[in-house]
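Quick one, tokens below. Sequence please?
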């Protein structure tokens, strides 16, 4: 088994739960070996090109994995699913944000106030929904009426074995970058908690000594947040050393809840922001703007913490992060250590 086959197995199994990964890897490895032998014996390929030709014959690893794992790509149909998915993700990544930004600019230039926040959010969501609907409809029509002239998914994607991802040869390369990013953001968060105490408003071109958060929070809740930041930093180091599992995922959920619940509660009770800050911005906000900003703040905190929790659970389900997958031929040091 060569590195090219290893890369194919890695690409085919990396999105599967750990329980299915080993069996599928073994079956695929046997099928690839049989296909290589058959091509050499029949003279269809030379020994030097047989492996590459066999992988081309098997097709895109994601399509093959779907057929093996009882997860058919049937939203559009296996023929066009990956093309539809790639195009939709590409368009959704920038079109709604671009339209929302253009809308915001137009409203600001026309003299709009805080009410533009709700309009911009609604516009972005509407564009995202319409984009998903119409792209899906177009592919559904292609799926229904195409007679074969368009070609297979491999042809549409332009897939070849040369596009297979590289094997994770170095242990924890992604976890090191994750650790650095986590520690940097936690340090920034701690710095902002201190910096906000000295004023976040500029009046007449000069910063005013109006804190963002209520000074009374220094009696308990702000030190609590500093302790939570320290625990998050320690947890990030622990994840770097041990990788994701169910126990770590549950700890991650607990840490997220320990941040979200108090912050949202303090905000709802009117104890999070300082009275001086609220008094300074009150003339610029009407009731609707305050309501919209409150919903955005609560929803944003809840969404960020929920996403962080779900991300940890997904990594635990997959048996860890990238670079720690157990599949035949994986040369990662972690497998060797087992």
């Amino acid at each position: 088994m060569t590195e090219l086959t290893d890369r194919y197995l890695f690409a085919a199994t990396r999105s599967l739960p750990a329980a299915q990964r080993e069996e599928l890897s073994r079956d695929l490895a046997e099928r690839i070996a049989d296909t290589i032998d058959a091509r050499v014996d029949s003279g269809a390929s030379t020994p030097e090109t047989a492996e590459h030709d066999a992988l081309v014959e098997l097709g895109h690893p994601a399509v093959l994995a779907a057929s093996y794992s009882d997860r058919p790509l049937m939203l559009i149909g296996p023929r066009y699913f990956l093309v539809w998915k790639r195009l939709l993700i590409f368009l959704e990544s920038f079109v709604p944000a671009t339209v929302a930004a253009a809308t915001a600019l137009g409203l600001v230039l026309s003299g709009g106030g805080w009410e533009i926040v709700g309009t911009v959010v609604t516009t972005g969501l509407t564009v995202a929904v319409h984009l998903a609907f119409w792209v899906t409809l177009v592919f559904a029509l292609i799926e229904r009426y195409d007679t074969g002239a368009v070609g297979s998914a491999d042809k549409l994607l332009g897939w070849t074995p040369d596009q297979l991802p590289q094997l994770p040869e170095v242990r924890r390369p992604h976890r090191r970058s994750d650790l650095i990013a986590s520690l940097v953001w936690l340090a920034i968060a701690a710095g902002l908690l201190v910096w906000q105490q000295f004023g976040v408003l500029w009046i007449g071109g000069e910063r005013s000594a109006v804190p963002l958060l209520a000074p009374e929070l220094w009696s308990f809740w702000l030190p609590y947040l500093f302790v939570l930041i320290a625990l998050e930093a320690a947890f990030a180091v622990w994840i770097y050393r041990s990788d994701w599992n169910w126990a770590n995922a549950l700890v991650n959920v607990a840490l997220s809840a320990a941040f979200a619940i108090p912050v949202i509660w303090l905000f709802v009770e009117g104890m999070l922001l300082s009275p001086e800050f609220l008094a300074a911005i009150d003339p610029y906000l009407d009731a609707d703007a305050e309501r919209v900003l409150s919903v955005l703040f609560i929803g944003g905190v809840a969404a960020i913490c929920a996403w962080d929790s779900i991300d940890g659970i997904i990594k635990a389900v997959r048996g860890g992060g990238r670079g720690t997958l157990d599949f035949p031929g994986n040369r990662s040091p972690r497998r060797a250590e087992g």
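The chain has three domains: 3-71, 81-150, 173-317. Residues 287-317 form the longest helix (31 residues).
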